[in-house]
Amino acid sequence: MNEIWIIRMLGIFFALFGVAIRFGYFKKMYFASKGGIYGYLPMGLLFVLYSYYEEISGSRPESLTIYYVLFGLLIVSILFFSLRKPKWMKPKWVLWVEKYPAKVINKMAEEVKDDPEWEQNAVDEKSIDAWAKRLSHK
Predict the structure, then answer these.
(1) Are residues 70 and 7 in the same domain?
(2) What is the pTM of this model?
(3) 58 lies in which domain range?
């Protein structure tokens, strides 16, 4: 297998991983990261796009210009999604958690580190509300 296919498969992996994060899987990563996880989807697409450079560079100059524009847009998207964390990229459960003050969210993050069963607290909005209420009284 040559390196282009490895880069392409790595890109597909990151893109699918980004989609899985968007749909609310890998909940523990939310508390372990600073938000960079939302940049995985465009990063995967960037890897896939990069893997087609040889084919595109040998074609018309207009194609290469479009390639570079798409490449730049994906880099900007990675930075934007990682730093700004757009609301539409976040899973519903994250939006439910983020309506609480930072103090409560920090307590949630601490509990996640200590309690392997913590995901039962993030099943639905009602369970997150109960979790936040319990932690805010500590």
Answers:
(1) yes
(2) 0.79
(3) 1-86
